[in-house]
Amino acid sequence: MQAMQTITAVVLAAFVGYIGAWYTGAIEGNFALLLFLATVVTGAYWLAERFYFLPQRRRAAQALLDADTQRRAELDRMGIQKVDGDVAEARERLLMQPWWLDWTAGLFPVICAVFLLRSFLFEPFKIPSGSMIPTLLVGDLILVNKFTYGIRLPLINKKITEGNPVQRGDVMVFRYPPQPSMDYIKRVVGVPGDEIAYLNKRLTVNGKPVDTAALPDFFDADAMRYFKQFDEQLGAQRHRIIVNPDSPAFVQGASNFAGREGCRYSVEGVTCKVPEGHYFMMGDNRDNSLDSRYWGFVPEANIVGKAFFVWMNFGNLKRIGSFN
What we know:
Membrane topology: Single-pass type II membrane protein
EC number: 3.4.21.89
Number of strands: 16
Helix content: 25-40%
CATH topology of the largest domain: Umud Fragment, subunit A
Number of domains: 2
CATH architecture of the largest domain: Ribbon
CATH class of the largest domain: Mainly Beta
Radius of gyration: 29 Å
Enzyme class: hydrolase
Structural class: alpha+beta
Order of helices and strands: HHHHHEEEEEEEEEEEEEHEEE
Largest sheet: 8 strands, antiparallel
Organism: Paenacidovorax caeni
């Protein structure tokens, strides 16, 4: 048992060290990997507890009861009726789960439930930037549907069910192509085969201008200024966008991404042909969004899921609800 205590202490210290290094920025953490390892480790302890350690403690407790019963029978034969000592407390101590199992096997059901829920059903995210204003604000806590586009295996992100096709206008979370360990959220503007043009701040899909209608100006409380706001329709989705008329139309600082040969940049903006198996993404805050105009297309393999619900914003409870 002493060896198991030592091993468990080392394992828990490794988890704490990893989290600490991640929190301080010493390493680039991977929560999915951390949760998977926690599930595997606690699951191993849970199996060991169920099929080895618990039966072992029960046998020891039963042996204690049998010995006490035999002792009392012998004393009874000797005519001694009153016997001091009660083994009930000692039996409870024998059956009690030690700390190193309580902190591993005891946590397995909760960790496993979180792992399955996060991997195959819904995953929570926090909006860190204003690239999706006015649809999503900084501080919004959102839920992402992990099965709409097909269920994927955790860590390797391999698709195992077909799901629904990605639609123009969907708000999608994906792995940032230049740095796949990071998750990004943008709106799907172009699907495979589309020709997307964003020229002079007007979006065109396959040669057809996207329908927009002017709305009252949007006040950005963080920037402390008003921006031009429009209602835009992509496919079946209607949503709002904001535009800063003072920002230039041309795209400055686009990287040399895969598939850039299918894009044409000019002072008016950019036109791109979306390759097969890829998607063109843009933020609703059109002049304050680092998106496909700058770093290219999102491969099918990078899809995480469809964002659909704000479940909390501690600064504004009215934000809670679904969105387009």
